[in-house]
Write a structure and sequence with these properties.
homodimer, 254 residues, mainly alpha, Multidrug-efflux Transporter Regulator, Chain: A, Domain 2, two-stranded antiparallel ribbon, 12 helices, DNA-binding
Chain lengths: 254, 254
DNA sequence: TCTCCGCTCTGACGCAGGGTCAGAGTCAAG
DNA sequence: CTTGACTCTGACCCTGCGTCAGAGCGGAGA
């Protein structure tokens, strides 16, 4: 049986020598033997065991649990262990998802409002990250529409989210600046077209989603505190509704 | 200005007194003052700051970074910070997703194969969790089909995944046991119906996805090593194809 | 006034999973 | 024999607190 010394063995397994020391110390992986001068000597069987360890670590188990599992050669327990880890990780992912959505919304809100103020930022993040993110808006959408929104969710990469958020901010600013213009004029028409394009980015052209959006934005004054940063000013909403009507485009929320 | 002592202040913010001590020590949140006898005295301004701290911690920043950010009153840096955190968290979520998928597949594989052996388990998890999970199967599906698969991905909760995996295992066993029967017989028809139901669970009835599945399972011998545990035995595939044909159901992969 | 309970302080150790020295010994090639 | 690449052990460091331990305060009841 060929023996490997620490560095070679570590490189084979893709870990550091320090890791081997650590695993030895905690009794997770003791080398097959020692040389006369105290050098650790590993074999291929050790490599197999180390690979098992690393895989179990990969799926999020702690070293202690791994040790216990391997010591009992826990092949029969493996299914249960996997089930538990799956639940644990699923919960983690939900947290992560919420946090990511919160950051996305915060970025959009920030990119619009020149100097960000901490207060609205904290309330926004807290509201979104702590609790149910999407549930409050479910009241506005039919079940099928909500399902179609969910199925489009994976399309919203952080980059796209950011780009669209920035475009919304720019559009809001431009509309603000055009409030004194004629809602049926040429400038207003251009704004309405941009508006409609951005709305379509979210609806994907789905009329059910569009309808829900309309309901939702009509109810903007009643949104939870954390979302008020997203509510467009009534003047803006009025203007764009008129502009959309004049341009013969069905109105979209915003 | 009203003053709070440690416990009351901590309760207001939803943290422990120890946390306050810690934040004081690392210079993240020093109380507005001290009583004559050394008691920490916090004010409402401290509460605001603590809320900012907690929100920044929520999105994954370290205490050191938070301190630096708040010390410079980094309102202007906030957008950059958020962008960075978003990327960091997005990467984390990808890891998590891969790991969850890997666990799901491992559970299914395990629930079929009586005594699990470590070797196929480790190769499976490594293959899936370390690298591109879905890319190898993209070759079998058209772009639209792949897009529809992605859009159905959110439907696959861990629970559903597990249930369907278990049903597949049971079905495989039953088919194995029925290999000597007539593929056109009544028993075979029942199996074909079950098979088709499970396939539909994945395809959602989409013929494009179905077509890709057929291509994919026809190529099973060429799947990467980590997926071989998923390949049905040729006899099983043969039997079920005949049974599906006899039952006048279009064949589904598996 | 004494006592008692509940609060507060500081200091110190522990946790997971190693990273990163420091100081000393070993191995093999030139 | 030297030199450079490894190896060993022991020890401290990191994060973000939890968890004592020992000692001091503050206010209410007896």
């Amino acid at each position: 049986m060929k023996h490997y010394r620490a560095l070679e063995f570590a490189r084979r397994a893709g870990v550091t020598v320090r890791t081997l020391h650590h695993y030895d110390r905690v009794g997770l992986l003791r080398p097959a033997g020692r040389s006369g001068t105290g050098y650790r000597l590993y074999t291929d069987r050790d490599l197999l065991r180390l690979e098992q360890i690393l895989v179990l670590k990969l799926i999020g188990l702690g070293l202690k649990d791994i040790r216990a599992l391997l010591e009992r050669d826990g092949r029969t327990e493996l299914p249960d262990v996997l089930a538990r880890q799956q639940r644990v990780l699923a919960i983690k992912r939900e947290h992560l998802d919420r946090t990511l959505r919160a950051i996305g919304m915060a970025r959009s809100a920030l990119s619009g409002a020149g100097q960000p103020d901490w207060e609205s930022f904290t309330t926004l993040i807290k509201e979104i990250a702590m609790q149910n993110t999407t549930s409050w808006q479910e009241q506005y959408f039919s079940e099928e529409a909500q399902a179609r929104i969910d199925s489009r969710a994976h399309l919203w990469s952080p980059e796209l989210q950011q780009r669209v958020g920035a475009e919304w901010s720019a559009l809001y600013r431009d509309v603000e600046a055009a409030l004194s213009e004629d809602p049926a004029g040429e400038k207003a028409r251009a704004l309405a077209v941009r508006w409609n394009a951005l709305v379509s980015e979210f609806t994907g052209g789905d009329p059910g989603i569009q309808e829900g959006l309309n309901r939702m934005y009509a109810d903007a004054p009643n949104w939870p505190a954390g979302r008020q940063a997203w509510a467009p000013r009534p003047e803006v909403q009025d203007f764009i509704r008129k502009a959309l009507a004049a341009a013969a485009i069905r109105p979209g929320g915003g």
